[in-house]
Amino acid sequence: MESVDLIYKAIYILAIFGVTLLIATYSTYFERKIAAFIQDRVGPNRAGPLGLLQPLADAGKLFFKEDFIPAKSNKALFIIGPGIAMLVAAMSSAVIPFGDTLIIGGHEIFLQAIEVNIGVLYIFGVVSLGVYGLMIGGWASNNKFSLLGAIRAASQNISYELAMGLSLIAVLMLSGSLSLRVIAEQQAGFNWNIWYQPLGFLIFLICAFAETNRTPFDLPESEAELIGGYHTEYGSMKLGMYLFAEYINIFVASAVMATLYFGAYNFPFMLELETWLVDATESAITANNIVTLIGTAVMFAKIFLFIFFFMWVRWTLPRFRYDQLMKLGWQILIPLAILNILLTGGGILLKDYLF
């Protein structure tokens, strides 16, 4: 019995890993297409029909390029840096519930790789390790532009992780749990946290842009000032791993926002649909599986909307100055996050008093 469950879990983990890599790969294609649309261009259209093979062509180009390591760099750390960035990014999606429960052959399969009661802390702990990949790569390159980019990345991540963590406290106060599955289940139907935490979501969204080094917070790799930032000296697949890790982080950030604030796999009239399907199919298991698959599709639709938003902002807004970046993080977002905690606590106490 346990061995069968382990096999199902292994298949699910491999599937999620493959889907994560596939989405990160084709995010590069859709980013180019979105940029082309905004700038009234065509975008990739040569490699395959509609340019759909462009990401594979890019991967092949990076894979076959000459692997260059600077003579005076720390060679071991130079190789380890992009590996840490990629590993940490791939680990982040392990606790995200992409759907409810499938029942196959009498076995319940939770569409979540790992269910831990501290899922939120797990994501924060793993994501905070990503900065080590950037710092190690920037320092090991023995290039002043790379080092400046690495320092910027570290200070930016530390600054915005504080506001991000404070914005999450309000959600945890409402849910009473650190488990992402519990938080998702509490938002059944249309009872999403965004209705109760609009300010917290806005703070989290801004911090997500900063944590993923995306415009307008792409100071660590700004070409106009630092040539390419922490990956200036990188080429071949080492550069590809840094770029790939960034797109995986965008996917994970989108999934976390969808889970915490937009109901995860829940959608309006979900319970009513399952009741109707039970009557129509005369099978509770079939109805449950259909609703679960629809919920998983809804979850990925929410994720894709956030990924689109990340890309739309990149090609719409200009980059912040570094002093503006720090001021926004320390003097605006952190006080707003603390205010949001106080307002949430006051609302909870008022509700308990009145009801």
TrEMBL record:
Keywords annotated in UniProt: Cell membrane, Membrane, NAD, Oxidoreductase, Quinone, Translocase, Transmembrane, Transmembrane helix, Ubiquinone
InterPro entries, alphabetized: NADH_UbQ_OxRdtase_su1/FPO, NADH_UbQ_OxRdtase_su1_CS
Superkingdom of the source species: Bacteria
GO MF, one example: oxidoreductase activity
Transmembrane segments: 6-29, 76-99, 119-141, 162-184, 190-210, 247-270, 290-312, 332-350
Enzyme class at the top of the EC tree: translocase
Compartment(s): Cell membrane; Membrane
Catalytic activity: a quinone + NADH + 5 H(+)(in) = a quinol + NAD(+) + 4 H(+)(out)
Enzyme Commission designation: 7.1.1.-
Function of the molecule: NDH-1 shuttles electrons from NADH, via FMN and iron-sulfur (Fe-S) centers, to quinones in the respiratory chain. The immediate electron acceptor for the enzyme in this species is believed to be ubiquinone. Couples the redox reaction to proton translocation (for every two electrons transferred, four hydrogen ions are translocated across the cytoplasmic membrane), and thus conserves the redox energy in a proton gradient. This subunit may bind ubiquinone.
UniProt cross-references to HAMAP family, sorted A to Z: NDH1_NuoH
Subunit structure: NDH-1 is composed of 14 different subunits. Subunits NuoA, H, J, K, L, M, N constitute the membrane sector of the complex.
The family this protein is said to belong to: Belongs to the complex I subunit 1 family.
Protein name in the entry: NADH-quinone oxidoreductase subunit H
Organism: Pontibacter aydingkolensis
Lineage of producing organism: Bacteria, Pseudomonadati, Bacteroidota, Cytophagia, Cytophagales
